[in-house]
Amino acid sequence: MMTEAATRGQEPDCGPAAGVVTRFAPSPTGALHLGHGWSAILAHDRARAAGGRFVLRIEDIDGVRSRPEHVARMLDDLAWLGLAWDGPVLFQSTRLAAYTAALDRLQAMDLLYPCFCTRSAIAREIAASLSAPHVGPGGAVYPGTCRALDPQQRADRLASAPHAWRIDMARAVGQAGAIGWHDSIAGAVIADPLAHGDVVLARKDAPASYHLAVTIDDAAQGVTDIVRGVDLFAATDVHRLLQALLGLPVPRYHHHPLMLDGNGRRLAKRDGAPSLAALRRAGADGLVLAERLRTGQSPIGIGGPMA
Fold this sequence. Notes:
Layout: H1 4-8, E1 21-24, H2 34-49, E2 53-58, H3 68-80, E3 90-91, H4 96-108, E4 112-115, H5 119-128, E5 135-136, E6 139-140, H6 151-158, E7 164-167, H7 169-176, E8 180-183, E9 187-190, E10 200-202, H8 210-220, E11 225-229, H9 236-246, E12 252-256, H10 276-281, H11 286-294
Parallel strand pairs: 1-2, 2-3, 11-12
Antiparallel strand pairs: 4-7, 5-6, 7-10, 8-9
């Protein structure tokens, strides 16, 4: 059951007895860069300063892009920075039954519907609409095409057509009621899941979306404090909704600014951000680099305030 404070958006009381547990949860789809390293250090140091635990999760349910060799390099990178995690590494690929169970619960609550749309079909429908598209935190919001299918149409298509599962956001918000969360920088935040539209919770090509898997796994690992980049600030609206619907504990959130390159752009793999592995191969001292990151002395600087 949610506490009154969590419902109002005040800082939840995770309780000193439970201790502080933070996590770092990269996807093994490429090399870690300096921004990843900084985020991992912040999560690690928050746990260590409180005498708590720092756990590691590999988010590898994207079977097409995830690579075992990336996992090995990531573990080496973290150790090179002087970071140690507590307990075994959790792999999301071993957690499929938990995601299915959560989806079954939401389906029993009549909150999910199958979506047969392709990305191109959604884009065409939005473009052809006479009204301006509803734009949410992640861009144009899904127009609800498959939500309007009648039961027989759904049943006929479910038998043969590839499909994702979307949450009926309006219905879900109606069941959850007012929800909020607390961020160490932004303070009390009133969640607005409706702004995201009917997000996907199980993809056509993966058993769970990021939103569902990360929420379920944070609860399973006992994470009390989530440290991550401000680019995921808005996604917390959806995660809080799922926590409320599934009766999961509410962690404290710490969204940090992003690390930027010399042109003021956020570091990204696709833009050739320097990888930790490349720095390691070039002979850089990982412990020295970690200390520079802690004090904001990165070679390329640290990003600005929350957007």
